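Table S5 (text form). Sequence records supplied for joint modeling of the two-component complex.
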Amino acid sequence: MNIKKSIDTANQEALEKMARVQPILVDIDLAINVVPGMDEKTVLHAGPPIDWGKMSGPIKGAIAGILVYEGLADSIEDGYDLAASGDIKFDPNHDHDAVGPMTGITAPHQSVFILEDPKTKARAYCTLNEGRGKVLRFGGWGDDVLKRLNWMKDVLAPTMKKAIIHSKGIDIKAIISESLHMGDEAHNRNRSGTYLFLSELTPHLLDTTDSKVVKEVFQFIKDNADIFHLNLSMPHSKLIADAARDIEYCSLMVAMARNGTDIGIQVSGLGRSWFTSPATMVDGLYFPGYSTADACPDLGDSTISEVIGIGGFAMAASPAIVSFVGGAATDAVSRTERMYEITEGISKSFTIPILNFRGTPTGVDIRRVVELNETPLINTGIAHKDAGVGQIGAGLTAAPIEMFQDALRAFGKKFLS
Amino acid sequence: MTKKIDKLVKDGPLVINIGLRSFFEASKTQGIPVVHIKWEPPARGNRELLHLLDKLL
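The corresponding structure-token record, covering 474 residues in total, follows.
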């Protein structure tokens, strides 16, 4: 078989494997109990690997803060000292079957959603969403942030855990599929997904927990409806993307993630190698009082959404998103249409009403990206460049071309020699 | 032909711009009806990458 045929066959196999995954929310537990390779002195972060010295302000601040939460540091200053001492191991979420939005911090005693594919028993993990504004995942810190994290561990997670187990599993793919018909693109707009999730969860909350606590949990999820479901959408996408990993000759991207310093991609046929470029700045809308000068470069594992064909690739399903990330409603349609040029397939699960229910563009082929100089579109939140502040806006950016060119060179070196 | 030239001078051009976006922006600024078609050389004209793509795509 010639190499072009081998690549086409491998890419089709990847798309079929991705389509078969059915991510089900099955449980919540502490990361140390379930995340592979997690221990008391490990903190996971978003994006490709990075040393402490090169980390962006929000990631450093979130790590220092989480070390206080973990009881390993007495103050945020101690947290910085401990992080710089070399005693804490830092690893990308993606190396531990996990993902995390923005700084993506996952620490041993944070609770994580557990999503599982019933057929393969493969799993993916993600922390619970704190809401917007001054929150740890954007590098925000303060007593209020710590108090919220502890409430999430002590009240939110145990309450949801009982309900999820009682439900015998919640189908997250079905929720996202439906939410795209209700105005979400499932990256920056998750409002419909959250409401659909709440409607699945609430009967089980009422069956398993005192109504006063149920009300508290319901209110928290409802108050953060625009973003809460992202932390379910992301591990759902991770589980789907991971099904396409390690297929010989496959030229499809299986991960794209940013750490505020670098952005990196992984390619199915090239194993665990990261191909990186400097992270880009995000062109967007800022909260009052902030501007581009305050922004950290692009950040987070949430681009796993675009890897499987939702988020920026499904913007045509979400004209309302432009009020949050900028642009005109017609831009949302043209942005999705551009992505069909660089993808191998069309999703059978995620469809777009305004495009006559056409499936979303799915499976980014690095060959097409390099040929057309058209890179994946990303819509994303914007963190303040300094630790302690949190989210200051949201907007759009495009992945840089250079890392795709490097990946193509490596692909050629491996499969043409 | 003369009639066509007369019409062009009288009505102004209708422009299809292929490639450089700055030409599109300039026409638009002058009020000339224009549509833009995004085009650039494959792989930005990089010979090494074109050679690779020729074998892989």
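Note: The longest strand of chain A covers residues 343-352.
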